[in-house]
Specification:
This protein is an alpha+beta fold. The chain contains twelve helices and nine strands. The radius of gyration is 21 Å and the shape is globular.
């Protein structure tokens, strides 16, 4: 039995009831299809429509834009339950894109897009990463040139989650000189858009149900009113100011996956027979599982505290950077320890622990590589 966690103020009865509803929906409506989605390499866009219509995609949005106007903790609960069910983070990328519009868009932009994002009519993605660019957003080369009442976009992006399935992309473009002050964000509705092309769906070692694609812009023309905000050159600031929230969207699944790995391994160890006793009866097994249980407890305690600070508006970027890198590191360590308990079965793709192992590795890379997180923390020391 896990140690009792401190009950933070955000963990009230309403949110626990909401958690139960999300869990039941995910288990009944999403989990049965995961094997098919893994084989085909993507979750169909239409899957998210009913998920949004019942209020699970963007519950934190104001009611005027299709949300329930609740705290960000409710979104964290959604991501927690999806991760515990091995559903990849497509909806996390969707909510990040929505928040750029919510926090920096004009009222006309909010009215035009947010309710469609909340309902799942649009599935969103974020097009930032470019070949050879990675986390260095100041080096973006995709350019948006102003031409009358439009912007004309040319360039290429890679490693784009929802790149294959999204109907709306928030695209980081260069609208000015080199450096951070020349970056802007443009919203691109991709359906039947001339010059927009989805390239390869990239084959990954894990997260097989989550589509990751190359996308290309060849003279793509979008209305100038699709610029997020009132003026050009604000994109870098807009991107940086969302980092605390975005990092929590990675720390929360880390906590969920550690707990799932521990649960799977405990069940296996108590049933697996070896030398006339169960695997769990061996002292080494007990010690290793005690270590993982401690990891799970400490990570969850840290994550819950960060959620409380996020809800209170006091979560500083450095704490979020710490949560992202440290929790993802513990996730990889914990899953590795658990997989070892399964022996040869742990190396078989049909076993959930094997999927958790390969799926976890990207956590230390996307959302800002952990080495970048450490550098950012060190700058404030």
């Amino acid at each position: 039995m896990m140690p009792r966690l401190y009950r933070h103020a955000w963990m009230d009865n309403d949110i626990e009831s909401f958690r139960d509803q999300v869990r039941r929906y995910v288990r009944a409506e999403l989990v049965p299809h995961l094997d098919v989605w893994r084989r085909q390499g993507f979750i169909p866009r239409e899957v998210w429509r009913p998920f949004g219509e019942i209020g699970y995609l963007l519950p934190e949005l104001p009611e005027a834009y299709g949300g329930a106007e609740v705290s960000l903790a409710w979104q964290m609960v959604v991501q927690d339950e999806l991760a515990k069910a091995e559903v990849p983070a497509n909806s996390a990328v969707h909510t990040i894109a929505a928040h750029y519009i919510l926090d920096y868009g004009t009222e006309e932009q909010k009215q035009r897009w947010l309710s469609k994002l909340a309902s799942g009519e649009h599935l969103a993605g974020i097009a930032m990463t470019e070949p050879g660019c990675g986390s260095d957003l100041k080096s973006l080369r995709t350019r948006a040139r102003r031409d009358g009442d439009s912007y004309v976009i040319d360039g290429a992006k890679t490693f784009i989650t929802n790149g294959f399935t999204a109907s709306l992309l928030v695209v980081a473009c260069r609208t000015g000189d080199a450096g951070s002050k020349g970056v802007s964000l443009l919203v691109v509705e991709t359906e039947n858009l001339p010059g927009f092309r989805v390239g390869r769906r990239l084959e990954k070692i894990g997260q097989h149900a989550s589509d990751t694609a190359e996308i290309f812009f060849d003279g793509v023309r979008v209305p100038a009113r699709n610029l997020i905000g009132e003026v050009e050159g604000q994109g870098f600031v807009q991107l940086m100011s969302q980092l605390a929230y975005e990092r929590m969207l990675l720390a929360v699944p880390a906590a969920a996956v550690i707990e799932l790995a521990l649960e799977l391994t405990l069940d296996y160890a108590k049933q697996r027979k070896m030398f006339d006793q169960t695997l769990f009866d061996f002292q080494n097994t007990k010690f290793k599982l005690a270590e993982v249980a401690t990891m799970a407890h400490v990570v969850r305690t840290f994550v819950n505290d960060c959620i409380q600070r996020l809800v209170d508006g006091t979560l500083d970027p450095q704490a979020a950077y710490m949560a992202k890198w440290w929790c993802s590191e513990q996730q990889c360590k914990a899953v590795d320890e658990c997989l070892q308990m399964f022996g040869g079965y742990g190396y078989m793709a049909e076993y959930p622990i094997a999927r958790l192992y390969t799926d976890a590795r990207v956590q230390r890379i996307y959302g800002g590589a952990n080495e970048v997180m450490k550098d950012l923390i060190a700058r404030a020391l």
